[in-house]
Design goal:
The protein has 384 residues and is α/β, with parallel strands linked by helices. Strand 10 and strand 11 form a beta hairpin. This is Calcineurin-like phosphoesterase domain-containing protein.
């Protein structure tokens, strides 16, 4: 009995730490309990052909529109629990900026990842240019509500750290603001706390970037579909898809300095490229796309976000470049949610949409987007 008592006492620090982390998560996420996380290696770059593959575009801080997109594909139920079974889902990045629910989206994506894994499904999250920008401390597109959300996070996170100091068996937590200036030139006092909190959370090795972004991928190959936020050029493939994923992951985790890898910066970066996403199809570089796909074994198409398609999800270059950013966020066009669905070995590719215009006047709707890429076949409507 005495030995059991000693074992229980030894476990108390770990139990307290786990309780505090759960308390902080619940407070920051708006009331979510994250399921237990299975210990697993970093996600791979390449996946076998899934029986059902769903692609979801840019979310930009809009929690409700994010949920609508998942519901379009039957991936979550009325209580926001995973209902997608064995589906594989790829969200192509840009959770950050232009809205005030960035952390809440990160939490629900993490919850759904864990729930999907228990059901034989898979939710893959990716880095967009706005993830890279925020980890580097570039907050040009963050909103007032976005800064406030991170300021609230810092309050709860610091409270959790204070609770942990009450237990002698736990090491003293690190000051999350260590190394961050207390003032910035030209920054008003009322904005300072939100900026400092955002830096603390998202800088390389920061608590939020480590918790949520280190398992993001920058390039994904699922069956015959290549996913990337902006686009791939021949030099990116030559450099190595797995190599890029590992280096970006290492940078976010804090082991490669403050600056993002060079292939994540500039107009030709994997997260910034628009060569295949121009709204006018004739401006897109189909020859380069063909070359890139030919150098990735088994690749049939490239699926991208980043550039808003006002006519909805569409494809160019003989359906080999699929553009899925519909600007659904209130802060980014307030478009109607759409997602891409690929069933089986690309036998059925279709758009799931909540846009009633397509159904009320299909012919005129099609003619209005002919110059900006063709709608993929077998379009169906599923109400959000």
């Amino acid at each position: 009995m005495e030995a059991n008592h000693e074992d229980s006492c030894k476990a108390l620090p770990e139990l307290l730490s786990s309780f505090v982390d759960t308390f902080v998560d619940f407070s920051v996420s708006g009331g979510l309990f994250l399921p237990a996380s299975p210990t697993s290696p970093s996600p791979p770059t390449r996946y076998p052909t899934p029986s059902r593959l769903i692609a979801i575009g840019d979310l930009h801080g809009d929690l409700e529109k994010s949920k609508q997109a998942f519901r379009l594909a039957g991936l979550i139920d009325a209580a926001d629990r995973w209902s997608g079974g064995s589906s594989t889902v790829v969200q192509v990045g840009d959770v950050f900026d232009r809205g005030g629910d960035e952390l809440k989206i990160l939490y629900i994506l993490e919850k759904l990842k864990r729930e999907a894994a228990k059901s034989g499904g898979n939710l893959i999250t990716m880095n967009g240019n706005h993830e890279i920008m925020n980890v580097e401390g570039d907050f040009r597109f963050a909103t007032r509500l976005g800064f406030k959300e991170f300021e609230d996070w810092a309050f709860w996170y610091q409270m959790g750290n204070k609770m942990k100091t009450l237990c002698a068996g736990l090491p003293n937590p690190k000051d999350i603001f260590e190394g961050i200036p207390r003032a910035f030139h030209g920054v008003k006092t009322d904005a300072l706390n939100g900026i400092r909190a955002r830096i603390a959370a998202l800088r390389p090795g920061g608590p939020v970037s480590t918790k949520f972004l280190t398992n993001n991928l920058t390039v994904v190959v699922a069956g015959d579909s290549v996913f990337v936020h902006g686009g791939l050029l021949p030099q990116h493939v030559d450099y190595g898809l797995e190599r890029m994923n590992k280096e970006v992951r290492d940078w976010i985790s804090g082991s490669m300095g403050r600056s993002a890898p060079s292939y994540c910066k500039g107009r030709d970066a994997v997260v910034w490229l628009r060569k295949y996403s121009e709204e006018v199809a004739s401006k897109c570089d189909c020859s380069t796309l063909e070359h890139v796909l030919a150098t990735i074994p088994g690749a049939r198409r490239m699926i991208m976000g980043h550039t808003i398609q006002e006519g909805g999800i569409n494809a160019i270059c003989e359906n080999r470049a699929v553009r899925i950013d519909v600007g659904m966020s209130h802060g980014c066009g307030n478009g109607l949610p759409e997602v891409l669905e690929i069933n089986g070995n690309s036998q059925e590719v279709r758009i799931l949409t909540s846009n009633p215009l397509y159904y009320k006047n299909k012919d005129s709707y099609k003619s209005g987007i002919e110059d900006s890429g063709s709608r993929l076949p077998q379009v169906v409507e599923v109400k959000a």
